[in-house]
Amino acid sequence: MRIDVITLFPDMFKGPLTESILDRAQKMELLELKFNDLREFGTGNYAQVDDSPYGGGAGMVITAPVLVEAIEAIEEKVKSEKLIVNSDPHRIYLSPRGERLTQEKVEGLAKDHEWLILVCGRYEGIDQRVIDGGWIDEEISIGDYVLTGGELPAAVLIDAVARQIPGVLGKDESAHEESFSESLDRKKEYPHYTRPEEFMGLKVPDVLLGGNHGEIDKWRKKNCK
Ligand code: 4F9
Hints:
By secondary structure, the chain is α/β, with parallel strands linked by helices. It contains 9 helices and 9 strands.
C-alpha cells in the first residue's frame, strides 16, 4: 500500500512511523509512505497556503486552489512515475466533522485500497469546496476532541491500517491478532501478566499459572474491558 500525506508539518511524522513494525513494513516495501509539504504549493513571495474566513471569525482557512493543486500534482507524479498502476487514490480528510474511525473501518480501508492520500488540515480547516468539489472521498475523525491539526489523527490511521496489510505483522503478532478477534470482543482487552509471579506482594491470578486453557479463556472473557 502507498500512502501520501499532505501536511504543513511533515516532520511531525518522523517519530511515530519510523520505529518497530511500521519501519519493518517500509523496509519490506509492503508500505510506502510519503510526506508532502503543502507549503511547496503555496502562492506568492511567502508561499501562502491560507486566508481569513469569509463571514469573519478567528483563524485561517487553507485555500482551495492551493490544496487542490497539491492533491492533483501528487496524483499526477505518482501515476507518471508508475509508482502505482491501475488504481486511483482514496482521498481522506482528517476532520472532527468526519465519521468516527473504527476497527471495522480500518480493515475496510486496508482491504479496499492500494493507495491513500491523507489531507491534514490546520487552523480552522480547509475550504469546504475542496470537499464538495469531489477532491475528498471521505472525512474521518479519530474522536470527539479538538487537536491542533490532522497530523496526529493521520499517524493513528496509518498505524492502524498498516498492521492490516498482509505480511506486515510477523507470525506471532498475527496469530495473537486472530485469536484476539475470534474468541473475544475485539473492542476489549483482558489484563496481562508476566514474570515474576509475585511483585511487591501483588500476585498473578492462580488460574493463569495452572495451564488449563478452558479455564484461562473463561477468566479472560470475564475480565475483558
Ligand atoms: C481530526 C480531530 C480528526 C479528531 C483536526 C483539529 C481532528 C482535528 N479527528 N482537530 N484538526
